[in-house]
Amino acid sequence: MQQLEFQRHRRLRNSAGMRAMVRENYVSTNDLIHPLFVVEGNDVKREIPSMPGVFHFSLDQFRREVNEVSELGIPSIILFGIPDHKDDCSSQAYAEEGIVQQAIRAAKEENPDLVITTDVCLCQYNPAGHCGIVENGEIVNDPSLELLAKTALSHAQAGADLIAPSDMMDGRIAAIRHTLDQNGYQNIPVLSYAVKYASAFYGPFRDAAHSAPSFGDRKTYQMDPANGREAMREAESDVMEGADMLMVKPALAYMDIIRQLRDRYDLPIVAYNVSAEYAMVKAAAQNGWIDERAVVMETMTGFKRAGADLILTYFSKDIARYLKAGY
Length: 327
Hints:
It comes from Tumebacillus lipolyticus. The structure is a single chain. By secondary structure, the chain is an alpha/beta fold. The protein has one domain (25-324): Alpha-Beta Barrel (TIM Barrel), CATH 3.20.20. Helix content is 39%, strand content 17%. A hairpin with a 2-residue loop joins strand 6 and strand 7. Helix 8 (255-264) runs parallel beside helix 10 (292-306). The longest helix is centred in the middle third of the chain and has 17 residues, at 142-158. The protein is globular. The model has no long low-confidence stretch (mean pLDDT 93).
């Protein structure tokens, strides 16, 4: 057979050592932000049915979980609080002794070096289940900003390291940045849920956070999944208003958006691997249909390849164990 001229790409794939040498993207524990759901009460560790392996924790059990997360080398958690009391003003969102504020202090007592990220939203704290104030059946933007900024400030005062507003009200980054700066918290960074879609992938989270809307939906403030250019406008506004980091939520169906943000901005980009993305993999693995570890790590590597610097994921403890085992 005549010798042909062609590229032999397989030369760089012919051993595990060679593949490791030329690997372009890696997942590490330093990439991870671990979500935790904190509830009121005592001795509560209650698994969320639609999210196997994810729990509601009362503060005493939460302290144990913080220690486990820390021992696994995960550098950051994000807190979601579920209060016993809800009212139209979402008052428990910014109460000094609110469940998130207590959890921040508890986590810092257990591990002062853990980066405490806090979700800033109103949906868990009011009966309507919406992310802003509701007036006459409408989610009103500007009156919501004051309460969102007040919530962010209360988190900073409790000891939070990173503030992450998820509400998608226009102007929220500017309002929060101004309030933090005016109260001496100029050094607290803001991680904006800059690109948050009105997605079908949030169902299990709404069960976990008890935050499903009591009427309508969130399409007037969360983004249309069909839109990409709009995502760039949203991100641009948040950058101009003072965001230090940008998040894309969900991640799996929106890796094109992660890549576009990566190409446009030099700020850290965070991918939120959301609840249904987690639940689908867990369900398939429980049925023996997939290799869970391989699918999880391939997905995380995909987020990194798309341009994410950090990954907020319910798989973070699993990933930390995989990495410790030498995956």
